[in-house]
Design goal:
- The structure is a single chain.
- This protein has a domain at about 100-165: DNA polymerase, domain 1 (Orthogonal Bundle), CATH 1.10.150.
- It has a seven-stranded mixed β-sheet.
- The chain has about 290 residues and is of the alpha/beta class.
- The two termini are about 15 Å apart.
- The longest helix has 28 residues, at about 90-120.
- The chain is built from eleven helices and seven strands.
- Helices cover about 40% and strands about 15% of the residues.
- The structure holds adenosine monophosphate, fe (iii) ion (2 copies) and zinc ion.
- Zinc ion (ZN) binds near residues 13, 70 and 253.
Amino acid sequence: MPRAEVAGAADLHAHTTVSDGTDSPSRLVAQAAAVGLWGVALTDHDATSGWAEAAAAVPEAGVALIPGMELSTREGFMSVHVLGYLIDPLDEPLLAETSRIRESRLTRAEAIVRRIGKDYDLSWDDVLAQTTEGATIGRPHIADALVARGHVATRSAAVEGILHPRAGYAQPHYAPDPLTGVRLIRAAGGVPVLAHPGTRGAEQVIPPRRLAQLVEAGLFGLEIDHPENRRDAKARLRTLADDFGLAVTGSSDYHGTGKPNRLGQCRTAPEVVERIIEEGRGSSPVLP
Ligand code: AMP
Ligand code: FE
Ligand code: FE
Ligand code: ZN
């Protein structure tokens, strides 16, 4: 594993057209350079198929690429995302799980569209028209189709309206539990970080007992500096990070034009990036 000369901060959470972002992987890397980052992590939902294109863009852009993924997991009814950095993209158990999740995301999206189609002019082809071939499908793609059909003004309005579970059309997709997710990422040589763990406020932050299990399974850190984490939750999470000796990351969760989050808006300190690179053994960072 080459040791990086981490000269500046990195944004360790970004999406592309491989999932529900709007930039291609190469454009993401170019944008990372444009906003002055030392490095960027590519973390598409349940997929690593953007890595090669992103890596090819590194020499010209002059920024480092940390290959990663945002693994979908679920605790009861609550969706929990686990970032996995420097995983082995060919690790069989992880591949089996992500295939199963993507397959379930697809059948779930078709079911959601069938239900919406009873009340709105919307077809599966409308959704496909908003989706890059092979992409991990999510509600954002259905949202884009609703925008294209003129039913809502923006992706955010759709996600918070017609596609919100309370509207009655949405349903969950298959996902393993977070403990399984953390174990899978570590077993694939990756470095697991709990994504945006404070979006639901301090009351809903993961209970210490549950966190202890994730730490025992190899959890590396908490993504505390994230645009959607609430202030009260962040304070609680900082205490938990101290208590459990967890690293703290900061990242934008950039989705291109699909979300207001700006690339580089939140960043991770160089020393934390260094530790991730030291611990990751499933793949290597791509340095300029
Ligand atoms: P899904 O993975 O299908 O459950 O859809 C959830 C995805 O929607 C997440 O990856 C979010 O990034 C995205 N999302 C959530 N809220 C918004 C929003 N307000 N605007 C755009 N995208 C959103
Ligand atoms: Fe997303
Ligand atoms: Fe997420
Ligand atoms: Zn994300």
